[in-house]
Amino acid sequence: MPPRTLYKKLVDSHTVAVLDEQHVLLYADLHIMNEYTSPQAFSSLRAARRGVLRPRQQLAVVSHIILTHPVSVAQRVILDPASALQASNLKRNCREFGIKLFDTNHEQQGIEHIIAPEHGWIRPGMVVLCGDSHTTTYGALGALGFGVGTSEVEHILATQTLVYRLAQDLRIRVDGVLPVGTSVKDLILLIIARVGAQGARGYAVEFAGSTIAALSAEARMTLCNMAVEAGARAALIRPDQTTYDYIREKAQDLGEQDFAQALGDWRQLYSDEGAVFAVEHVFAAQEVAPFVTWGTSPDQAIAVNALIPDPLLAGDAHAAAATAQALQYMGLSAGSAIAGLPIDRVFIGSCTNGRIEDLRIAAAIVKGQQVAPAVRAMVVPGSGAVRRQAEQEGLAAIFIAAGFEWRQPGCSMCLAMNDDVLAPGERCASTTNRNFEGRQGRGGRTHLMSPAMAAAAALSGCISDVRTLEKQHV
Amino acid sequence: MSEHKRIEGIAAPLLIDNLDTDQIMPKQFLRTITKEGLDRGALFDLRFHPDGGTKPDFVLNRPEYKDARILVGGANFGCGSSREHAVWGLQQLGVEAVIAPSFGEIFFSNALNNRLLLIVLEQEQIALLLQASALNGHRLLIDLEQMQLSCGSLAFPFTLAERHRKMIVEGLDMVGATLQLLPEIVAFEKRHAAASPWARVLPMDEGNHGQIA
């Protein structure tokens, strides 16, 4: 057999049938649903008098619309009638078709991309699909994960498969040690800024190199989570000891013997020597600095000590117009510094940065400090388990003492489908994945950054270089 | 010639690169369990002021583009969120085809699954096409038999995978087609479960296909 990429191995091992030169029927080991991209799929299924083929390989969560008010989970009641209907509708669908649901008041409730890995349900070599674009997250554990639309959700429910258009292979190599004060979020913002918002469109990206190998399992999830912001169809990292250790700890159902057998299989999951990638990009970890987005696309990012770009220098007229529009929306002027820009809100959370490691990083910066008086800052853990662990570790107490709101888990202000919304003109330091116009609220202005940088912004009241902040306090 | 083999009508230029699906269908319209009423939400912030008033300068609000059936977009049209509501909303606005240099990946599949035709053309071809259509009442003709896009004497061929062309023209029941392969799926599952038992993360069902009577 000719040398194959990791991506090709995963596709091959899940191909039920080859449909044409571009498409295969791809088998899904696990399918995850949420309340807002699944309702019409169930309706269509019912209308066609079809059933769910493999109910026990489905998992459903209420994640996007859920309230995060700092009350107990049991007290959480969705007041908005339309949202409440979505939640009750999902419950009905799951009950009727025998699907496991983490409902609104479930103690394990949270964001799908946080819950699934933390239960050990995402394993190397699996194919996992979900009606959410950030399903690329699962590549961090060597699983092929990607987002699908509602018609495809229906197709998966009925057949446990997807008519899948094959992607090409792209490798992004990063070598070296990330500088002090930077993290994987800065790395992925740099990568997206360099390759562009559609630089990986049509590709399955494999991240490789010594920098990637040194990352924790959770940091890898942040990296793969945001690969979709460069247009990637999927993101993958070769499973290694870090992966195995993570799964060993999380997967309670996997016995010693099962695990040993699995390890044998997982060790075959890598791109063969000589496997061909259509495109390769190489970065050095030393290039990474704390990164911040200034515009309305995730690729509009710069190092915190750089100047906001000038539309006149943006290449063609098309790019110049886009830059000018972004600057106008963001209320910024070309050539000015991004550091020192006053902010109104801080949001730490989301499927990008709502994991325990993210909260540890942020809490380490916040400890013993106070949120700037003009800032409203909130921490929204990614799941009930993350929230409980953060409370046990004393992180919650640090955030609360500093003046952060310590909230219940959910997608929250990442896409603002609940009542965590920016007011028009409000500027937010956010650990989320998208700074699109209106994403966090109509007229809201989002600056994407790492948990450390968001914590620094909360304390100083403006976009600040966390490296200088740390020096001040050491 | 059937409706889906030919789309002729007004083409509106919406030349915004990376027009994400959050903008095509903002969050507040996602709190629904049906597909209805999404025409109001489509491109909402571009079409309306925060107070609900119409933005007269926006292309689709201008009288000459009022009945647009075709959108001419920028690169990476429909990037971002997987929300299929973006496709449903555009269709409910009357859009039957989008022409752009490239499309977001999930949006691409979502569009085809709903028979919203997407055509990829080079940036330069798009510019020429818009110039020509400006002289022709902003009208374009898309012919799916000839696989050609034209405006007066100007014509460009375009490509579409045969599977996608058939989906648009004939409106395949994808689920029905795949269910014909159910024996293959079941056979695959058996092999797969034996080879990769660790991939069963939730207990498998007992062969109940969940069929509602």
Automatic annotation (TrEMBL), chain A:
InterPro entries listed in its UniProt record: 3-IsopropMal_deHydase_lsu (IPR004430), Acnase/IPM_dHydase_lsu_aba_1/3 (IPR015931), Acoase/IPM_deHydtase_lsu_aba (IPR001030), Aconitase_4Fe-4S_BS (IPR018136), Aconitase_4Fe-4S_dom (IPR036008), IPM_dehydratase_rel_enz (IPR050067), IPMI_cat (IPR033941)
EC number(s) from the headed UniProt entry: 4.2.1.33
GO biological process, one term: L-leucine biosynthetic process
Keyword terms: 4Fe-4S, Amino-acid biosynthesis, Branched-chain amino acid biosynthesis, Iron, Iron-sulfur, Leucine biosynthesis, Lyase, Metal-binding
Co-factor(s): [4Fe-4S] cluster
Keyword Metal-binding: yes
GO MF terms held by the record: 3-isopropylmalate dehydratase activity; 4 iron, 4 sulfur cluster binding; metal ion binding
Pathway linked to the protein: Amino-acid biosynthesis; L-leucine biosynthesis; L-leucine from 3-methyl-2-oxobutanoate: step 2/4
Residue ranges constituting the Aconitase/3-isopropylmalate dehydratase large subunit alpha/beta/alpha domain according to the UniProt record: 9-461
Superkingdom of source: Bacteria
UniProt cross-references to Pfam families, sorted A to Z: Aconitase
Reactions listed under catalytic activity: (2R,3S)-3-isopropylmalate = (2S)-2-isopropylmalate
Entry function: Catalyzes the isomerization between 2-isopropylmalate and 3-isopropylmalate, via the formation of 2-isopropylmaleate.
PANTHER family recorded: 3-ISOPROPYLMALATE DEHYDRATASE, HOMOACONITASE, MITOCHONDRIAL-RELATED
Similarity annotation: Belongs to the aconitase/IPM isomerase family.
Assembly information from the UniProt record: Heterodimer of LeuC and LeuD.
Matches recorded under NCBIfam families: leuC, PRK05478.1, PRK12466.1
Protein name: 3-isopropylmalate dehydratase
This protein's encoding gene: leuC
UniProtKB/TrEMBL annotation, chain B:
Sorted UniProt keywords: Amino-acid biosynthesis, Branched-chain amino acid biosynthesis, Leucine biosynthesis, Lyase
GO biological process, alphabetically ordered: L-leucine biosynthetic process
GO CC list: 3-isopropylmalate dehydratase complex
UniProt xrefs under SUPFAM superfamilies: LeuD/IlvD-like
Enzyme class (EC, first level): lyase
GO molecular function, one term: 3-isopropylmalate dehydratase activity
EC assignment: 4.2.1.33
Family matches, as InterPro entries: 3-IsopropMal_deHydase_ssu, Aconitase/3IPM_dehydase_swvl, AconitaseA/IPMdHydase_ssu_swvl, IPMI_Swivel, LeuD
Associated pathway: Amino-acid biosynthesis; L-leucine biosynthesis; L-leucine from 3-methyl-2-oxobutanoate: step 2/4
Domain Aconitase A/isopropylmalate dehydratase small subunit swivel: 4-123
Reactions it catalyzes: (2R,3S)-3-isopropylmalate = (2S)-2-isopropylmalate
Residue ranges crossing the lipid bilayer per the database entry: none
Family designation: Belongs to the LeuD family. LeuD type 1 subfamily.
Subunit field text: Heterodimer of LeuC and LeuD.
Listed PANTHER family: 3-ISOPROPYLMALATE DEHYDRATASE SMALL SUBUNIT, 3-ISOPROPYLMALATE DEHYDRATASE SMALL SUBUNIT 2-RELATED-RELATED
Function: Catalyzes the isomerization between 2-isopropylmalate and 3-isopropylmalate, via the formation of 2-isopropylmaleate.
Name of the molecule in the record: 3-isopropylmalate dehydratase small subunit
Gene: leuD
